[in-house]
Design brief:
This protein has helices spanning about 1-15, 20-45, 60-65, 80-85, 100-110, 150-170, 175-180, 205-235, 240-245, 250-290, 300-325, 330-345, 345-350, 350-355, 360-370, 375-385, 390-415, 425-435; strands at about 50-55, 90-95, 125-130, 140-145, 190-195, 200. By secondary structure, the chain is α/β, with parallel strands linked by helices. The protein has a four-stranded mixed sheet, with helices on both faces.
């Protein structure tokens, strides 16, 4: 027992004292927040001003593009499309009423897409056909310097279609104010109803929380799994392991390494959760003053499940990395061996969007009850849904059984592999190691 504790202490202190551990512990939450917020800020504000030319062959859509309010995102439209519109569009309106050959008239303006003079350079050109109001099959055409300028395209389409719809309805004798009221959007409030009948607020916030917490559950397991694998390879290469196994058994060395690094991961996660709790407390106070209850997103049971499934996920994944370190002689060999296995283990992560949006599907339930995939998938389901307790208990039991089998296999391979050098063993050779050890 004392020898196991010595290995455990060595692994823990060696990693906790490194500068990288301290830096990542303190800065990783900020880095994650930046990576999540930056794309949104780039879309909503970072796009700057778009210079657009509109050639209107109807001659009736002047107000749709030239009013100040229309050059900015429409505050009355609450959909996802409206929220990701550029902050400002500088629209140059050209009245081409009655123009039957709009494509030819547009050529001088299209040439400005490649203009070197920045004062004349434009980002896009919209062509509105003469029959846009009267013909329901009419189509707009948008020229752009970017192949993926869908945000400006969507905004211009919205401006044009709202005005065209308004004109069509006015042509049927409806009052302009009545038209605006009839065309106003209805907001939707998402509500999650638990099996106990409790109502919780749903929507994008739950998706975001599920994504972040699942990332925190998975990433440390793979990061510290790599640490164990590289540590074993380094000790094999430097012949340190030969000295270690003369004092401790291979099983004590393996368990000490795995649990020591697990304690490092739990320490780091605890610091992150503490930082998140302090931030969440501040946000909860602010939200409470604004009449919002943040506890409907962050429930105490969520953190209990996080601790349980983090340990299960970590112990499941790390055994695979320990085997990789035991049977390989270099980082390159180990990475080639582990890469395809890691891709398989991360399958629920690649399907994360579908699992979050449909957590009670057959696929989600199957993944949550399966070995290896269970901890990640079941935790995700507890965040965004209310799975039956019987399924949660089954996942925990299956995961514990999987870990026990993995530890047994890992210990046998580790016992032979840490003192094996040269060519990487084949699968039949690994099978012989398991039977002999």
């Amino acid at each position: 027992m004392n020898k196991f504790l010595a290995v455990f202490k060595r692994e823990y202190i060696q990693l906790v004292r490194t500068k990288m551990f301290i830096i990542m512990t303190l800065l990783f939450p900020l880095l994650m927040a930046g990576l999540m917020l930056l794309p949104g800020l780039m879309v909503t504000q970072g796009l700057g001003e778009k210079k657009i030319v509109v050639l209107d062959a109807t001659g009736r859509l002047h107000d749709a593009y030239t009013q100040t309010d229309n050059a900015k995102p429409d505050a009355s439209r609450r959909g996802a499309a409206a929220r990701r519109l550029p902050s400002k569009m500088n629209i140059e309106y050209v009245d081409r009423a009655g123009d039957k050959d709009l494509e030819t008239s547009a050529k001088p303006y299209i040439a400005r897409l490649a203009e070197r003079d920045k004062s004349r350079l434009v980002d896009g050109i919209l062509l509105v056909p003469a029959d846009a109001v009267t013909n329901t099959d009419a189509r707009l055409k948008y020229y752009s310097r970017s192949a993926a300028d869908f945000i400006a395209e969507e905004r211009l389409s919205s401006l044009t279609n709202r005005s065209v719809h308004r004109m069509r309805l006015e042509g049927r004798g409806l009052n302009a104010d009545e038209v605006d009221k009839l065309m106003s959007d209805i907001r939707i409030d998402a509500v999650q109803l638990s099996k106990s009948g409790q109502q919780k607020k749903g929507g994008a916030a739950n998706f975001l929380i599920g994504f972040v917490l699942t990332a925190l559950l998975v990433m440390p397991s793979f990061i510290y799994g790599m640490q164990i694998m590289r540590g074993i390879i380094q000790e094999k290469t430097e012949r340190v392991v030969e000295v270690l196994v003369s004092s401790v058994t291979p099983s004590q060395l393996l368990v000490g390494k795995i649990l020591g690094v697990a304690a490092v991961g739990l320490t780091q996660i605890s610091v992150w959760l503490l930082m998140g709790a302090l931030t969440g407390g501040t946000l909860a106070t602010t939200a409470a003053l604004a009449g919002e209850n943040i506890t409907q997103f962050l429930r105490p049971s969520m953190f209990a499940y996080f601790a349980i499934f983090f340990i299960l996920a970590y112990l499941t994944y790390v055994c695979v990395y320990a085997i990789g370190g035991a049977i390989c002689n270099s980082d390159r060999e180990a990475q080639q061996l582990i890469a395809p296995i890691s891709m398989i283990m991360l399958l629920p992560w690649f399907l994360l969007a579908g699992l979050i949006t449909n957590p009670d599907s057959s696929l989600a339930v199957g993944f949550s009850l399966a070995p290896v995939f269970g901890p990640m998938t079941m935790f995700l389901r507890t965040v965004v849904a209310d799975p039956p307790m019987s399924q949660i208990i089954t996942t925990i039991a299956v995961s514990i059984a999987t870990i026990a089998v993995f530890f047994w296999i890992t210990a046998k391979i580790f016992r032979v592999g840490i003192l094996s050098y040269g060519k990487r063993p084949t699968i039949p050779e690994l099978w012989r190691w398991i039977k002999v050890a």
